[in-house]
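Minimal example, chain plus WT7.
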Amino acid sequence: MVVQASLEGEAYFPSDDVMEQAFVRDWEALARFADEDLEGFWAREASELEWYQPWERVLDDSQAPFFKWFVGAKVNIVQNALDRHMTTWRKNKLALIWVGEKGDVRTYSYFELYREVCQFANLLRAMGVQKGDRVTIYMPRIPEIVTAMLACARIGAIHSVVYGGFSVDALQGRVDDSHSRVVITADGGWMNGKLVELKKTVDDAIKRCPSVETVIVIQHTGQEVWIEPGRDYWYHELKQLRITNGACTPQEMDSEDPLYILYTSGTTGTPKAILHTHGGYMVGVYSTLKYVFELNDMDRWWCTADPGWVTGHSYLVYGPLLLGATTFMYEGAPTYPYPDRWWSLVEKYGISVFYTAPTAIRGLMRFGESWPKRRDLSSLRLLGSVGEPINPEAWRWYHSVIGGQRCPIMDTWWQTETGCFMITPTPVVPLKPGSASRPFFGQRAEILDEHGNPVPDGEEGYMVLTRPWPAMMRTIYQDDERFIQQYWSKYPGKYMTGDSAKRDTDGYFWVIGRVDDVIKVSGYRLGTAEIESALVSHPAVAEAAAIGLPHDIKGQAIHVYCILRADYTPSQELMEELRQHVGMHLGPIAKPEKITFMDALPKTRSGKIMRRLLKARAQGLADGDISTLEE
Ligand code: WT7
């Protein structure tokens, strides 16, 4: 790629090679078509997939913000992700290549994956799981997490995947809120050479979850775990039962029927369950992955995300399978046993398109160029970034050291709520390091001030999306009111992203970060409220405030301010104990970087903790407006 100056600032233009191979060369033309005929564009995308029954209307906006897409259609996303390929040569193509942290390898052709999913789905059906039932999946990054998700979707059950790095409280809250009848887990997983005891966490968590009738346990590490008679079943034993063999007819779903819920942290209170559907979500994910990464039958696609996050849902599980691509999945840590583990996998498996998070890039940059330089990374043709703004320094390193200057970087901005990419380049779009470029086809974004007026280009404001898209969240599960209040009430008719951003004079968007109480630690989304409630559950803590402060590798790190109860005194030991306590309750990612003991927390006169003020002071910045601060 060449650097040119016809765009403002540092810009990288696609090379002739990239242009030649591109599947959509005229970005502007397609963008114009989609902008002028939103429904026409999405109808065309949808018609590339299979429907049991066609839609009567593409978009129903009569009850906005409760938008409906492909109204009246019947579909099943798994039928499109698997069965659709059974009548083509892709039946024998590799769907999934999996490598464990220990070095074990498993591969599945589309046919093999299809069979596994049918078996799993038959099993769930035999256990009485029905359309609409919620199933919690709490697993390591192993192939069965994929088959479990697809098995649920195949029979119309709503999966709720909880990230395997979360621990007891986080899991318990999510199982309970979703009233899951079934939990699917594994004996354990491997991460950084250590055993992660997932089953134990499940045992602890569901003690307080009366809805759970059955726990299905995948054997992965071989460690001994407790099997509760009448409640817990080994998957490999259930599989021996003949009942699970044979085909499994997918459940015909209404386009708007729920596919899954996924909990994510919001501004206040407990994490909320974002709800996605079979029809619209399928079309959005399929189309965005197709246009942005242009996966073809020569490609091997590696999205490093965990299926426990939306990136894993959309672009590790559903997206690549909908496209009939070969997807790669690795169980463990990028630096285990050496800092070139990822690069060795790219080399060995000939990965051609690689999609990861800025925090991972920064973390690996730290070990220097020699690790990736020892590996042959010439199979790569395209790179991707997601989860937080990528700092230009990391971008350039990724571009030159990993991508050998030849791979465009697709910086994709989106959210759990959006389901698919919203602001993103495609391979032919000139790139500016640190900018996710422009809205995807059919989408529009605006930067607004407090009162809803657009701010001039170059100025910071609230980023909103102004047109509906098929993969948009339909609601917060069981909480329509919160859905409206959180996303649609600040600027009626516009979707509030929760991010602040700038737009430059070339129309490129520069996301700055969250404007609410969401902290992004290594790209993981955590709410201050969750961390604070984990802290006050410790007998020593009377009150706590959590904030995110800039961190070189993690992007943001959690800093906590605590007021102790009367009979406790601050000490190094107590600090460590509290860090462990949060880790144990929420998961290691939530462990605070630093804990400061205070006598009082700054509050507004109405009693709200002023986290903004704590944040400003911690960074040595001006206090800002403190007119509401209590005396
Ligand atoms: C938040 C959503 C959806 C993928 C994983 C994160 C931040 C995400 C980018 C990007 C700048 C980004 C935003 C957004 N974010 N991608 N390319 N550039 N910021 O999903 O956990 O729901 O978090 O992640 O702040 O609001 P999520």
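The chain has a mean pLDDT of 95. Residues 264, 310-311, 385-389, 411-416, 436, 497-499, 511, 513-514, 520, 525 surround WT7 (CB under 6 Å).
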